[in-house]
Write a structure and sequence with these properties.
Number of strands: 8
Structural class: alpha+beta
Helix content: 40-55%
Shape: elongated
Strand order of the largest sheet: 1-8-7-4-5-6-2-3
């Protein structure tokens, strides 16, 4: 009888030890998973910071002379030809079209800052249309439905403004100082943080 009790005691102790080990393993795995999540979040945060920094006009290159902005003919909403030139203030130009989702988002992103910066910076949105998928009527409908209040112009049929300034991708945003120098170009990463940082430095230093 005593042997049976002893055996049962050993079995219970063994079960308790196994449970204790299992609990410790689960807890350890949980801690490791938390550490991994923290590391992933840290890496993502660093990538975002690096992306913004890479796309901002830094203090180190404020004095560098970039490519000269080339003025060219565009058409306004009434089909009247005009020259898109730098006047008095620095300028930001958004090249976009309504069939390109990224360029639509870029346009909306810049629009969010238009009211706050329009006194110090001239905004212009250059619409690229092909008269097939992207007609002027479709553009005007989009502008109205999305409350776009920035000046909208249309590049000429031969895309003279795009070609003159070597714009090869839509969307593209040109950041131009008062001396008509292109001091930054945004293409791949266009978000509110990057746009606002560029506008801040442009309005304060140019």
């Amino acid at each position: 009888m005593k042997n049976k009790k002893t055996l049962i005691t050993f079995i219970l102790i063994g079960i308790l030890l196994i449970l204790a080990i299992a609990v410790n393993i689960i807890a350890l795995n949980g801690k490791n998973e938390v550490k991994k999540n923290i590391q992933v979040q840290s890496n993502v945060s660093t990538e975002v910071e690096n992306t913004v920094e890479a796309n901002v006009i830094t203090e180190e290159n404020l004095e560098l002379t970039g490519e000269k902005y080339i003025e060219a003919d565009v058409k306004d909403a009434n089909d009247i030809e005009t020259i898109l030139e730098v006047k008095d203030n620095p300028m930001i130009i958004v090249f976009w079209n309504i069939s390109n989702e990224n360029s639509v988002e870029a346009l909306k992103t810049v629009q969010a800052f238009y009211e706050d910066y329009s006194e110090k910076i001239n905004f212009n949105c250059v619409t690229v249309i092909d008269e097939v998928k992207e007609t002027k009527e479709n553009v005007e409908k989009f502008i109205s439905e999305n409350n776009i209040t920035m000046p909208i112009v249309y590049d000429s049929k031969d895309n003279s403004l795009i070609k003159a300034n070597n714009v090869t991708k839509i969307p593209t945003i040109l950041i131009i100082n008062k001396n008509a120098e292109i001091i930054n170009t945004l293409t791949n990463e266009i978000n509110e943080d990057i746009v606002e940082a560029n506008l801040d430095i442009l309005s304060e230093n140019y």
